[in-house]
Amino acid sequence: MNTLMPAGDDSEGMAQSGAEDGSAERISRGGALSPAARQAAIATAISVVGRYFATGNQPLTPQAALGHKNTNAAGSGIEQSPGTLLEALRLRVALAAARRIGQILNQIAGRATFRYELRPEESIGQVAGQLDVSRYLMRLGTVADVPTYPVLTVRRTEHTPENVLAAYATRWLLRELQASVAAVRVPPAGPEHRRYLEERQSLERALRLPWLMACIPASAQVRHHRAERDLITSVKQRLNRREIANAAPYAELVHWVECVLAGEPVVDSGDLEWDFYGEQFDTRLFELWCLRILAVEISRQLVAPVPDLNPGWRGGEPAYTWHQYAGTFQLYFQRSLPRVAPERRARWRRNDGVPLGGIPDMIIRAVRHGDPVSERFAVIDPKLRQRGGPPTEELYKILGYLENFGLSSYPLGAILFQTTDTDDLTSYLYRAGGPDVDDSDALNGGALYAVRLNPAALAASMSALAPLVTDILSMLNIPRLDLYADEESDSDEPERFYRAKQAELRAYADTIPPNLLNQSRHRVRIALGDSRWQALGNQAQVMLATAEHIGFALLAGPESSSETINDYSGPVIGVCASIESVLHDWVITPATAYDPALQESCNKATLGATISLIEDSLKGINNPQPKHLAVRTYIEESGFNADVIGELILPLRRISKNFRNPAAHRHVLQRQAWTGLWQLVVSEDRILAQVIDAVCPPVETADYDTGDSAGNLP
Q: Same structural domain for residues 302 and 413?
């Protein structure tokens, strides 16, 4: 639904002149997802879909089971909230399994198995049945007021192994339904809860049927003694001996229970079906799918986990939130701009004072930290209908919405529309000023996107969405951190995160007011000494000063609580990166400069790998590799004190193990870690100063020199 127009108005309107684009806007067949696209959209956004349909107005209809072997070809980790996903899947499987068990029970009910058995009874006054001779002989000689005779009577009973198995499966599934509904906590008015009540009542009615009721005590004993496999073996033997006339439903029941016990899916893709929302809600499904993949692409470019969906996202809170050093991104779903930012008021009003409103499907709010705090917005609206060209009319509506709420200075908007293409998903980009606008400063003039997406082509859709997300990150001057990670590291995920965090620190340095960043630079310079400061490369100086600024700014804030925990992993990475920079700039790079291949491989070494390389080179290990010989030769020829360097190996390993590695593995590091590292590296133990003294020649400087008049380092 296009929420920028009045409800119910889904007309495309008059075709716009295509002079600007070279062709008139063409509307192609659309308005509904294909079965493959619908299935893919549900699989991608199931954690969002299950939480949206809570009003109870949507029916659950049988849909082809989602492929549980589905993988993300784009490698972007579409579902990184496995708890929510598994709970939602568990409920869908339970509902579908309940429907299937109901069908099996109906097939059995008409021809439930039974057998005849001899039961010992007492006949009073006369022999009414077959005399049980053994019991009668045991009673000879006893005197009673009324003579009784032990007899054997033939009775029909439904107490058969296969019926006990049916009762066991029905009771197990009833418990599973109750547990899965409790785990997902579906709204009482939601369609899942309605279907749950229907299936639960159906199973409870089935258990009151005579042929199942008679088997309930035995099924309880099976569960108590964990004798399910013995029971299954007995039923399979009766099936093999053809002792069960109505064999087909019982055989399916056995297979179903065996799958449960083996932990296998009880609903197979392409075999059975799950309960999902009907195709009349494809429009809303497309919007929810767009919400999910937008959150995934933002996280991918930030090299960060996809945040958990905020439980209050339908009540006005942001659906997703990303906290970065430069600021915060908030992604809202179907909230008007005044609800997101109350200070933003509509400029156009009706003659009776009512403002001209509108509710976009998605608003992204970027709040820049610092003094003063600033914010920018992006407005994004998905449209399910397919088009042969750019959706010009909807783009004008986006521009009108931005202008109405005073966002025309730095506008950023997008229309996401459906296509059935699976390869090249063409997008359209408009920038104020035309093609001569410098892309490096493009957002200052604004950007307007029209992006084709196809839920059945996830990888291509993510690629098509990437330029829009890059502009979204630019609202806080954050670059695409995933590009830095891919260029500077291999596929090792912790190292990708580590490199991306370094890139974020460098980018954040450009947003810090110059006077504040200079204060941090001066403090670190004085702590190290001017000569040592000059020995650091420019990037290392920037990261170390930025880490100091962020770390002590967080310390100056309120104590972290269980609700809000300050993460110091970024400043920790900045400090560790400065040590890496010194070792690489002054030892590894010059030692391997004569061999480009050797230099390329060694320059990718992490702090731990660099320490190991230097340690092994100093030891003179057996069968040294070319890199060991190169480093040892360089240290000897440069006149460095190998003993001093060797003494630093142990504290450097501790820094790598206790600080650098946890930060690279995305552990939340609290203030104790930051203060401990700063004291160890800069202020007290001065490990960084010792490393610089050991591997760098003295540098004479005139300013901030803490050495003697000759420029020697203290």
A: yes
